[in-house]
Design brief:
Layout: E1 3-4, H1 16-25, E2 35-41, E3 50-55, E4 58-64, E5 70-74, E6 89-91, E7 94-96, E8 103-105, E9 111-113, E10 128-129, E11 131-134, E12 137-142, E13 168-174, H2 178-183, H3 190-194, E14 203-210, E15 213-220, E16 241-248, E17 252-260, E18 266-279, E19 282-291, H4 297-322, H5 338-347, H6 360-368
Parallel strand pairs: 1-13
Antiparallel strand pairs: 2-12, 3-4, 4-5, 5-10, 6-7, 7-8, 8-9, 11-12, 13-19, 14-15, 15-16, 16-17, 17-18, 18-19
Bound molecules: FE2/S2 (inorganic) cluster and fe (ii) ion.
Length: 370
């Protein structure tokens, strides 16, 4: 069973006036890059479940039909506009509108029955969105121009492995851009400046980069303060946390870490980090954390709470920056920012109509300058 923790940190409310100003200044990017985004988790969507959803500015309804298939359709009934996510009912492979009872096919979205027996109007059809279930996630496809999926999401390596704690979940709703959030993986230089977990700039190395998958390998030297130890303690010089961050599109992050411990021991921790644009001003961050099961159950719980707290605190330190920064398409980068530029080159594939993320010559200069 998953343990659920909902934490919505307080953020300063913005007036519409300040938002208009920010919208002009903060980002020239398309607000919603193309890709697969988290709609729900498979275990939270039993047969018959009907859930209202908003993804990339679209009001949607997510439901699981009686044959076990998950569907996402536009939420508003073409008859008179009721929201199917609020009171809609699954019937076989269909969903029935709560207002006048029109029935829509789960696959095509076409109306298949009107209770009065009237002839079905041609326009009585719900727009259908592509859905996949991969590694426990129910994913919905968004494309700025309505195109069919341009890639598939490979299963997340290691997610089915036994011997892990239950997941611990944390979610945030924030005002940020998804590009800024995903670029943060590569931005190792901000870690000692902003995060208590380390006093040094982590080592960043490129891992697998293939189509929609981008992987970083990051080595972090943990700080004495973060480990709760007094400053005179000397940790072994080579003690590191080895992190692999794998992104599939900009939405799905799979973070696996091996944490060196004193006396030559180590343990492993993992976080599934989904980023979903809701509308032009709102992003949902949804994280599932887990740790290797310890021989004693209470110890596993203790370790899980500690890991989740460290991870979430780090995210909240970042949120303060993400919510207030601007996205610069021509940043004044230095050599150590090469990862950000490399990531931007890869991320271009998900934008249909934005301005270029970074001119190629700037990326080359960043990689080669002293
Ligand atoms: S609004 Fe859906 S059946 Fe009338
Ligand atoms: Fe960070």
């Amino acid at each position: 069973m998953y343990s659920l923790v909902e934490r919505i940190p307080p953020h300063t409310a913005r007036t519409d006036e300040t938002y208009t100003m920010l919208a002009q200044q903060r980002s020239s990017l398309t607000p919603f890059p193309n890709g697969w985004y988290l709609a729900s988790y498979s275990h939270l969507l039993p047969v018959g479940a009907v859930v209202p959803l908003k993804v990339c500015g679209h009001e949607l309804v997510l439901f699981r039909a009686e044959d076990g298939k998950a569907h996402v359709k536009e939420a508003h009934c073409p008859h008179l506009g009721a929201h199917l996510g609020h009171g809609g009912k699954v019937e076989g492979g269909c969903i029935r509108c709560p207002f006048h009872g029109w029935k829509f096919d789960g696959e095509s979205g076409a109306c298949v029955q009107i209770p009065s027996g009237d002839r079905i109007p041609k326009a009585a059809k719900l727009r259908a969105f592509h859905v996949r279930e991969v590694s426990g996630m129910v994913l919905v496809w968004y494309h700025e121009r309505g195109a069919a999926p341009e890639y598939e999401v490979p299963p997340l390596p290691g997610i089915d492995e036994a011997g892990w704690s239950p997941w611990k979940r944390t979610t945030w709703t924030l005002d940020a851009t998804i590009q800024d959030i995903s670029e943060n993986d590569a931005d190792v230089c901000h870690s000692p400046a902003m995060h208590t977990i380390t006093d040094d700039i982590p080592d960043l190395a490129l891992g697998l980069v293939e189509g929609p998958v981008f992987t970083w390998n990051i080595k972090i030297k943990p700080s004495i303060a973060w480990m709760g130890l007094p400053s005179f303690v000397k940790l072994p010089e080579d003690m590191r946390t080895h992190v692999e961050v794998r992104r599939t599109g900009l939405g799905i992050g799979w973070i696996r870490a091996t944490v060196d411990l004193p006396f030559g021991r180590s343990t492993r921790v993992q976080t599934l980090a989904n980023t979903t644009p809701i509308d032009e001003r709102t992003i949902r961050l949804d994280m599932l954390h887990r740790v290797r099961a310890a021989p004693l159950r209470p110890l596993t719980g203790l370790f899980l709470r500690g890991y989740a707290l460290t991870f979430d605190t780090t995210v909240e330190e970042d949120i303060r920056v993400w919510e207030n920064k601007v996205y610069l398409t021509r940043p004044a980068v230095s050599k150590s920012d090469w990862g950000i530029m490399r990531f931007r080159q890869w991320a271009k594939q998900f934008y249909s109509s934005s301005l270029p993320l970074v001119p190629d010559e700037l990326a080359t200069a960043a990689a080669g300058s002293d």
